[in-house]
Amino acid sequence: MKPIRHTLFGAAIALATGLTGAATIAATPSNMLVIANRIDDITTLDPAQSFEFAGGDVSHNLYNKLVNFDPNNLDAGYVADLAESWSVSDDGKTITFKMRPGVKFASGNPVTAKDAEYSLRRAVILKKTPSFILTQFGFTPENVKDTIVATDDMTLKITTDKRYATSFVLNSMTATIGGIVDSKLVQSHATGGDMGNEWLRTNTAGSGPYVLGSWKPNESITLVANPDYYGGAPAMKKVVVRHIQESSTQRLLLERGDIDVARNLNPEDIAGIRGKPGLAVDSELRGRIMYIAFNQKNKILANPKVQEALKYLIDYKGMQDSFLKGQYVIHQAFLPATFLGAIKDTPYSLNVAKAKKLLAEAGYAKGFEVGIIVREAQERLEMAQSIQNTFAKAGITVKLTVGTGKQILGIYRARKHDIYLGAWGPDYPDPNTNASTFAWNGDNSDAAGLTGVLAWRNSWDNAKITKETEAAMVEGNRDARAKMYEATQREFQKVAPFAVMFQKIEQTGRSDKVKHLNLGGAITAVSYWPVTK
Amino acid sequence: MLGLLFITFFIGRVMPVDPVLSIVGERATKEVYEAAYKALGLDQPLIVQFFFYIRDVVQGNFGISLRTGFPVAVDIRRVFPATMELATLGTIFGVILGVPLGVLAAVKRGTWIDQIARVVALIGYSMPVFWLGLIGLLLFYGILGWVGGPGRLDIFLQDEVQQVTGMILIDSLLAGNIEVFRNALTHIILPASLLGYYSLAYISRMTRSFMLEQLNSEYIITARVKGLSERSVIWRHAFGNIKVQLITVIALSYAGLLEGSVLTEIIFAWPGIGSYITTSLLSADMNAVMGGTVVVGLVFVLLNILAELLYQFFDPRAK
User: What is the pTM of this model?
Assistant: First the structure.
């Protein structure tokens, strides 16, 4: 029997010594920022195509834009970036940008108006998903030769098809698609008329504070500081974003000092690290809005009294203070707080008596049956269940349909739902992004197929609000424009078949050594270059 | 293999998810959507799509993954070595500890040793992997700090060694970089032990029952009567006769681990093929799912062939 025991003990001892011998207490190097995040949504790094959160975070640090947000002062709105200054023609259609002199791409090529011309034209011609952010100003692959023109190395003129609010055009330029690429470098990698789309998917050609070190899908992204960045070399020489799916895993890594920032901690883990020495928790308002919408193809839901009643049958506060605590805050207007023209009015709260009265007036004193479709995400399911309970108090029976994101979206886009519960995030940092989808509906017919428009998805057509939205889109004066959105949202709160409920708060756990990390608030993406440790 | 391909292909196509939406996103205009729809060949009849697919697979082209944007073959080349490294180490643990434990339990049948072996195996069978994994991480990494955390390497070491096989333990040795090797070892030891424990549970139970069968045979009694040493009876006679059966069990257990243990991979942030196939499935990335399935199918076939070859080596009758 001895040999067997020997083997067992031997193995156990070898294992134990092997483990202890190799143990080290980890700490990330002081000039390196290590972040845990879910990055499995990235499919491309080409700014003309990238349209996901994690991709936007990367792109924001690789590419400069003509105008951009200052991470240390987001409230200031867009400020000069690669364009040093700009002027608007009298008819409001042409904007002339003067380029910042002496800026170089990471490749060493100078940044000129020709590069800006190439980048913007390219985004229009490639027609990828986010191209609508530019083409909504009337740019087409056919007319960009005349509408986006570099008149010399330092001057870029862009001409829109009609007058738009300047703030609208410039806000849109701060989106990922406004990233200026190194035209010489990109053209040298173009194959088969793709304008370098395939090459830029996994490579970068920007002038931003970072260049791409490596990207391993679902594993990690490494950014390396660009020492020649015109704003000064960043303090963090290397930024590594590592894909960690599980919240509890992220928390362990953070507590052990193997990462500096954990971006996907659930409320339990946030509570767990709060107050621990060496760690800190940040809360930032993000752009995502949680709402429910009533399909107007459903006769009962088309009744304004019913709509109003339903808005009084949601326990906003109860949800905010219980399962949504720290993740969402009550917000009842379609523009997220911090957007131009955002309002803080919250006219609705749970009021069963009032709702019953309204339902009786509408002829549904005994309630009715209705379906709610929702994606199988925990917070949404909990919201749906809470709403199911409060609706029941007025006799309304809710049938919940739960599915994957894509199944539910399919039903919603086909306008086959009764009530949809879900989220919306702004596409670009201008109030028009949400106004044009919640409030505007240009053609309510099934044939129009405006599947990207939430008002259309719910078959809601309000001519007055559509007109107001269009007017706000072209108002040149920034303050007057803000006032118009405020008025539209108050009207919307009353008459629209939407109950906007919450705005997202993102909670981040970080080492307290990490300073000046700005995730971009509701309007832009994360900035790594101001970070110090 | 063809049947496997057909079934995965068919299930993939009837799934109520829209692969085009996964590419273009929900905000895409109709025009963008339709361009992508055509580019994927989804406007063709199902059977035509299937033949196109088979044609490409035969040429080693699994198509482009919708989710990562890389060719599926490139993705698999990246994720499979990670799983292989983990599964191989896990199986080695399982065999080194499981076989002696099984033999011991059989020899000492009914004693406290047998009972302990039974309990160890039972826990291995029934304990949920995510729980054991998290507790292991919490204890050995979070509290004691004996092992490395989730992931294959400490982050600042990650691009130090050039990729040759994709298995960091081997690549670091090839490059002669002992620091990376040690670091990789501290990261792999916990998930590999966890997988090893599961394979131990299975292997030890199977070994025990094979051994019992042999030990109750008449030839063993004969051997004992002949006055052979107990050691010789157990190892040369009884164990010698179960080698072939054991190989089958080990090969099966190894193949199971090579499919990738999804939960283990997620908890340990291990970028392997299990989580690759699963996340691809959830986002309707059928090229990736089918590519992954074909590779797993191939692994099963290869391991079977390997096991057959080993039979011939160990079993004189098979020659």
Answer: 0.81
